[in-house]
Amino acid sequence: MLTAVNVAIRGRVQGVGFRPFVYQLACQLQLSGTVQNNMDGVKIFLEGEEDLIQMFLTEVKEKAPRLAKIKEILVESTAVQHVQKFSIIPSERSGTSQLVIPIDSAVCEDCLEEMNDPNDFRYQYPFINCTQCGPRYTIIDELPYDRPYTSMKSFPMCDDCQQEYEDPTNRRHHAQPIACPTCGPKVQLLDGAGTIINSANPIQETINLLKAGKIVAIKGIGGYHLCCDAMNEAAVTALRKKKNRPVRPLAVMAASLTATSSFAIVSDKEAELLTSPEAPIVILKKHHNEQLAASVAPNMSTIGVMLPYAPLHHLLLTDSELSVLVMTSANPSGLPLVYQDNDAMNYLVGIADFYLSHNREILHPVDDSVVQVNAGKLDFLRRSRGYVPDPFPTNQDVTGIVAFGGQQKTTFTIGRNKQIFIGPHIGDLENIETINHYHKELTHLLRWIDTPKTSAVIDAHPGYQAQNLLTDYDFAEVIKVQHHHAHMAGCIAEHQIDGKTFGIILDGTGYGLDGHIWGFEILYGDAADFKRIAHLHYTPLPGSEKSIREPWRNAAAMLISYHGDEGADMASLVFPDKAQEIQVLTSMIEKRINTVYAGTCGRLFDAVSAICGVTKVANYDGQAAIELAELTDETQIYEPYSFDLLDNELITIDFSTMLKEIVSDVLARVSVTMISSRFHETVVQAIMSAMGMGLNKNSNLEKTVVLSGGSLHNRYLRKRLTEELKEKGFVVFAPESIPCNDGGLSYGQLAVAAAKRRK
Ligand code: ZN
Ligand code: ZN
Ligand code: FE
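That is the input. Now the predicted structure with zinc ion docked in place:
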């Protein structure tokens, strides 16, 4: 029987080839009607035999383009109109209101097959792409996303490409970066001085150079990487030395899942992430006897791995003697990603032996994203390439809210209609280059998104760069948000939690409302407001930044402040070469010279790491805590050390006795694994006791809790806290689509401003 239905499809269905897909599916099933984009997604009118319409509804989900993410399909029957054919019709309410900025995605299977087919005219072509894969965000100059507004504008299509581009049945129909060896971009090999090396096959030449232990700067999708053979210890050591990066783990790119399995354990979920269109770096557990060069990830049981995502990467990883490459972003330490050819030649002098470059310009740099699977859930360490700036939907109009993020690992977030756009990972706002980079990307995304500038949201810290950044934009109001409330609100918004909730926020540092540094917080409230239930006892951070870079100082200060002269003696015993400096620290603390007070999870981990002799001086942010966590036994639960809870107006968690016990364990040469495991469990139990005390003190609190803050990347903490809280009847949430570290702060800040607006 002839019937008709209206179908509304929501999710990521725009800018991913969804309308041509619907067109083809409808034609195959001999259905007539229309398809169009509208404000909410895709709207379809279908007319035909009932069973064929049913088939359409099943297949539209099952066979959807790989970049599509269908969240909802709504179907309602409607009057038959006796339409003769199926057609794609213009969007409803056109313009930027249904804004889609497409994201970069890894090369698809169909393109790979063609690239490996000697009879295909794109055989071994390193820039092959289609509507379902290839660069997007990184090559767009202006919206709408159309070839003349991308860096492909300088490559006029040849007849073959043009034909595919115009054919609605072709999988390259309107694929804006479409290209082939005749008309598209080309690779080029240059020596360290930037002189072009004439070569019939620059890619094969590069493979040979990498096999010979050379360091090659390779231009990819979002910027340049520095690459070398990950099995070649001398090459990796040289790369570290030249890049001035002594210990921080390096990421690798492995030829395939099979190649990955030879050095790391890959679960199904991890394999899915590795092979996803987003192709992030996934943190995996190494095998005990893996064969990678020791200096790829020293002191680490884990390794960051990605699979080839650009066709060029696939072509580089075809040699059986070169199956794993070190692939680290090519920026001098602390500076933004290098993505322009001139900068690469300037900044990488003396680092790169060669350059494998190409003439498709990168307009917007993006770092590789980094994820791990933590307690069975996705945990973003860095959300960038492949994910940004794909918007998050919200139920509320957030137009005009712009959140500036934090100071470290920063991002910005922009609201428009019911869409929230988180910008790319920017980095630490500690030098003028990164600050300029922030400015450039924010200005650009603001122009694309074209939202009125109503509310600027910044961290309450008076010293953060955001204060200066926002003066360049004209906002009607400025909202200051407490750091840990932003972490909490982000998780509330992500999971759309109604009502009030606890927030357990374990973090590095954040400015507290009392002027001290917070970061070990039990909060209660919602996205609009909160109250503080419990926190870690404050201890001094003499010389603040210096105590963060040199965790032994922070450890000594904790011991001295908790235990006075006895503490100073303990410090001298565990840091015997620092006797003089410990005296200086003691007087700095007594006289409160250049000393701030902090109660943060990050600093507590730093201190214990230093006392155990794991990391006394840190080379990179978070090193002490990460290396301590590496030594934890995650397979069993250990007996906790002692801790105290002081119940004043606020509950204060006091670890003075624990630190004393740890010092005596260290002096008695108890294994670091034992100490670290007991320490981790102590933190869990102290939090659980504080939660219990908080519930007793206050009546009618909701038994919901969100976990966030950078320390929640710690696998033991996330897993054990979740277990314990669930056992006590709590419903537990943690960030899964945004980072729990400060990369997610701007999203949380926006959530606070939105909630205040709603109230
Ligand atoms: Zn493709
Ligand atoms: Zn062509
Ligand atoms: Fe934070």
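Residues 157-158, 160-161, 179-180, 182-184 surround zinc ion (ligand 2) (CB under 6 Å).
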